[in-house]
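Notes to self, Class I SAM-dependent methyltransferase:
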Amino acid sequence: MITALLKPEIQDFINQNYHTDLKKLALTRNPFPEISWPDLLNQLQAKNKAKDKLPTWFKTENILYPQKISIEQTSSEQTAAYKATLITGKSLIDLTGGFGIDDYYFAQHFDRVTHCEINPELSALVAHNYSVLNSNNIECRQGDSHDTLRNSDTKWDWIYIDPSRRNDAKGKVFMLRDCLPNVPDSLDFYFQYTDNILIKTAPLLDIKAGLSELRFVAKIHVVALENEVKELLWEIRKGHSGPITINAVALTKEGEIHFSTSDDADSTVRFSAPKNYLYEPNSAILKTGAFDAVSAVYKVGKLHSHSHLYTSDTVVDFPGRRFKIESILPYQKSEIKAHIEGKQLNVTTRNFPLSVEELRKKWKIKDGGTTYCFFTTDINNEKIIVICSKI
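result:
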């Protein structure tokens, strides 16, 4: 299929039609009978999805795409590029290669990278793309990656794994043992071939749950893109027994925002009533669960043990949204009718019994504007509304 898809007339068709309405296009006649219509439509749909997520692939001629789900599940270029800066060495083997975005960036920091993929069509497609992208230090091996390890006499500097959740996994709790490969049960096997493992998991995984399953965790990285947590990265170092460093990074259009702590760091929290400024941590920091450490590191007061909002007298350089407090109202009907009801406001809730949607409906609040309202609970367990302007 690769050879047929690379015909100039087919590539021209893809480039001219990737942004068209595929539902309407699917009802028309296939202009290239040598390619199945569903396969060709998939190239259009996948290329369209790659436009923002994978701009290097999108802009490069003769790139071929896998099924749409592989595009949806793969790392974005921004997160892959950041991830590749975390580790270095001479050799890395990726046991769950997929579409190979991560390996493209790992190859810029390692002498050689091995991409393992059990699906033969996907493996061939990725090998073609690496050739087009001039990634000459990546070797693609098709087959079971555990067999690849067993048949290799290499001691790898790093093993990289992005386990996928089994389709038949039951229950609401996401555990690593629910995934393929089963990393917790395979650690001793992996340590025969490396001393260092980097594991990527989805944000759904609870950090405490991951720590309960894994041994030798040295670092955990929480990576957010435009304030949405995209992935957790677990650095496993054979024999590690010291503190666990927890890093949060927010990748934004303006640059990177970092926060770092450890499981044995000073987490002396300061509680405070709202002062002059209010702070809402980036989603990456919220995912770390290091709520008390935020107070200690940035020397800001916390409104309540469960509110995860912070305050200070003078403005500080804080990793998240910053606001100037204009007024503070008790959550009372008379106050709401006078200052909130029917107004256009940006509404956020933290440790509050009603959701944003319920508050908007109950008090006829319109979305938008330049005023921000935080419905939350203070240090005295009183429900309050903090009205702010964004800095």
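- The two ends are 54 Å apart (CA to CA).
- Residues 73-261 form a domain with the Rossmann fold fold (CATH 3.40.50.150).
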